[in-house]
Amino acid sequence: SIDRDHTSGSSRGRYLLFVPHQKVERGIILTDRYDTDGDNGTFCLSMAVVKPDDNSYLEIYQAESLSRLGRKLYGTNISITDWRTLQIQTHELECGTCHIRPGYICGYENEATVAVFAWRLSKESSYGPADHLEDSLSANGEITSPFLDRAKLISPLIHQSYIGCRYSFYYQFNSEWNDVNDRFFLELQVQDGNPLVLWASSLQESTAFKKKQWHRIDYWLGRIPHSFRLILSAEPFGPDMKVTTNSQSYHSIHTMEMNYCDPPEPMKEGETCQKFLCANNVCIDERNVCDFEDDCGDGSDENEQQCDYTNRMTSFQEGSDWGRWGDIYRINWRLENVDSFDYYKQGPGYDHTLRYSPDGRILFIDTDEVGPKLAIIDGPPMQIPTTCIVRMFVLKNSVNSTLFLKLWNLETNEIHLLNTLREERLYFDRFYYVFPERKWNATYKILIEAELRRYEDNYLHPYIAIDDISFSNDCHILPEEPVNLTTIAPDDFCGGIWCENQKRHRICVPESELCDFIQQCHDGQDESQCGDCNFNHGSSCRWENQVEAKGYVGHWNLIELASN
């Protein structure tokens, strides 16, 4: 029950009430007709709401008088146990964009777990930057509960974004401690899900170490077809295991902007499309068709009627599905569920296919050992009639890793370097190669190789994540592996065992895939000596025979019984 009216603040008053009864499970209320604000087409709807449980859903739509369709402005099933004022704005300029000024933060919600550490106008904060005092926010204060104190700035609800969408802001910090700044985060909350860390201050050297400087942060969000919020979250500086005294440490932010987030423009009357025409009359580059990216804005460039998801496109989503990749070489690359990473420094918390969902899978390699680590994987056999494009989406957290895209001629055994990626990419972005138009008179494979190097003084463990590999429709993908295939890597590159698979092709089975109950060698040697052993023929079947007792190291010995 509701014991008070929102308007009067007392038990006297009136409000609208909807209670489902007699199979009536939906209530609708319509406003009077209204005009929007001139040419801007903007308005703000404000209402006070109580919704005691999460078994009901509240939706708000806007419809034009001459249209049968409504545009969804808001929706939630989260319980609201006391009167809460909802403000629904259609001013597109302030859907995440904010040029801060005194008393105005553009619909962002300012939340803090403790009052001593919260976002405040820098001019009113105890410590903060030397400039931008009236158009920036700063968070400064003591640690009261290690790992739990947080100041959050939460954006208004954004209902979707399109392919070019980027979020940017300026960030500055100061810390009296000399450790890595890992106390500031950009998070994304899609619908009512848990927030995902998109970016953290410790992922870039500038924001990890360079104090009292403004750093511009740009993050490509891309197409998000669901409602979402962005969260700028800060934690107080100081030792983690104890409460600290007040210091001059702080976080500061200003000028948050959403750019290029609007839908692609359809062609105007009389225009013709010389490339790919989408169902919504948008014209896009043919090179971006069937590449797991919604460039049209309505998904018509990625539908199953024109995209070959079996041979040309691999998303790594289904179980242990490697697609057409890794038939010969699968060295040190592994398939990884993104929800297996406990911390954002271990790997991304989302993949490209499912768009910021924690349920995705990626092709992944990392290292925490000093020195180089190599990886290689081969694609399906292919022929190139005149031209062809190979595409993928790559995220890599460090310049201490290099990704190589190579072409393997299966007839001459020659390998040619196509493309190289060395710079860091803190979000999934396109990495591709366009074959020039000429005669390609052989059968080929694409090789994806990686080299990772961690140095003793580097605080990041380098990793590379790859998702959504695709070939353009003019690439001819062969259904079967060619016969009499010659391997190209030296034996010491394998790091496991070489054997012949069921098709009698010589493959490398890395050590991580031995004794995993998945037979890859046709004679089963990758799954032999995996615990069963009769100790005949002088073999201990990979059992380690070292024993240690009271500081004495001894060994089990294989004994051959005397024939008599």
From TrEMBL:
InterPro entries: ConA-like_dom_sf, LDL_receptor-like_sf, LDLR, LDLR_class-A_CS, LDrepeatLR_classA_rpt, MAM_dom. Keywords: Disulfide bond, Membrane, Repeat, Transmembrane, Transmembrane helix. It is found in: Endomembrane system; Membrane. It comes from the Eukaryota. This is MAM domain-containing protein. Pfam families: Ldl_recept_a. One of its GO terms (biological process) is vesicle-mediated transport. It comes from Euroglyphus maynei. Residues 96-263, 288-477 form the MAM domain. Disulfide bonds join C278-C296, C515-C530. It is a single-pass membrane protein. One of its GO terms (cellular component) is endomembrane system. Gene3D superfamilies: 2.60.120.200.
